[in-house]
Specification:
- The chain has helices at 8-27, 35-42, 63-78, 83-95, 103-115, 136-141, 146-158, 164-181, 186-199, 216-228, 233-241, 247-262, 269-274, 277-298.
- By secondary structure, it is an all-alpha fold.
- It is built from 14 helices and no strands.
- The chain has a single domain, classed as ADP-ribosylglycohydrolase fold, CATH 1.10.4080.10.
- The chain is globular.
- It is 63% helix and 0% strand.
- The relative contact order is 0.21.
- The structure holds manganese (II) ion (2 copies).
């Protein structure tokens, strides 16, 4: 895969975004399967072949990547941050009849459609991963402004999700991704994860507790275990998705972190060649535009 010349920070931001998309496309095939069902069917699932419960074409992505692209597109068109522009982008996406949409996302976007409010009511019981999975464009556009990173992450999260564990996980994943894109070590990333665990012990991820649902705690534990115990983008994503459950979202978030760590050039070329070309080009276009928003802000 030829990425031409680009600085290493751009390559890591692109790695995060393409990692998210290939993790989604690979994981969607085995979403809602158990690890043993995956092992029986695929031995190890490591090629983007489509299928799954959504009957995807090879390389097709799902809501995780689509909502990220919708958010990124809105930020670039707006030329900065507007929570309403983000909500409008999610609404437009929902009305486009996407291939899948999570329950909490649908409910939150419907609320916005009906009353125009930008913040979901706080929820005690629902803490899905649907807001954390789409936050990468905010991270890339606030690389040099960690205060804005937290504020805007929470604003986009609250359009559909409003739970302390979803908030905490989204912000922690944002800081981890940011540090990796800036070129910091995986140890800096681990420290952020350990701070998350210190504040919310539910997130303890080592030893891996073994759950893989769309509950943000299960998702984050599986993502962190995959990323911290692997030594390549491929290894991290393969490890993540083969555990099944919410495999596309877990694969997407593992791909986001591992892609930020290793950069776009170290994502397996066979995956990038399979990825939906429209998605590939949209991501290649968004990354420099989002980075430009970030440096605009710093100066
Ligand atoms: Mn999905
Ligand atoms: Mn999913």
């Amino acid at each position: 895969m030829d990425f031409g010349t680009m600085d290493s920070q751009t390559e890591r931001a692109l790695g995060a975004y393409l990692g998210l998309a290939v993790g989604d496309a690979l994981g969607a095939t085995v979403e809602f399967m158990t690890a043993s069902e995956i092992a029986t069917t695929h031995r190890v699932h490591r090629d983007i072949v489509g299928g799954g419960w959504l009957h995807l074409k090879p390389g097709q992505v799902t809501d995780d990547t689509q909502m990220s692209l919708a958010l990124g597109r809105a930020m670039i068109a707006w030329g900065g941050w507007s929570t309403r522009a983000a909500a409008d982008a999610f609404l437009k996406w929902m009305l486009s009849m996407p291939i899948d949409i999570g329950h909490t996302c649908r409910r939150g976007i419907r609320r916005y459609m009906l009353d125009g409010s930008l913040c979901a009511h706080p929820s005690d019981d629902e803490a899905g991963n649907g807001a954390a999975m789409r936050n990468l464009p905010v991270v890339i556009a606030t690389l040099h402004d960690p205060v804005a990173l937290e504020q805007r992450s929470l604003e986009q999260v609250h359009i559909t999700h409003h739970h302390p564990l979803s908030d905490a996980a989204t912000v922690a994943l944002a800081h981890m991704t940011r540090r990796l894109i800036l070129g910091d070590s995986i140890e800096a990333c681990r420290k952020i994860a350990d701070d998350l665990v210190a504040r919310h012990p539910q997130f303890r991820y080592a030893p891996w507790p073994g759950l893989t649902s769309g509950y943000i705690v299960d998702t984050v534990q599986t993502v962190l275990d995959a990323v911290f115990t692997s030594s390549s983008v491929e290894d991290a994503i393969v490890r993540a998705v083969n555990r099944g459950g919410d495999a596309d979202t877990i694969g997407a978030l593992a791909g986001q972190l591992a892609g930020a760590r290793y950069g776009a050039r170290l994502i397996p070329a066979r995956w990038l060649r399979r990825l939906d070309p429209g998605v590939f080009h949209a991501i290649r276009g968004q990354v420099p535009a989002l980075l430009a928003l970030s440096s605009q802000r710093a100066t």
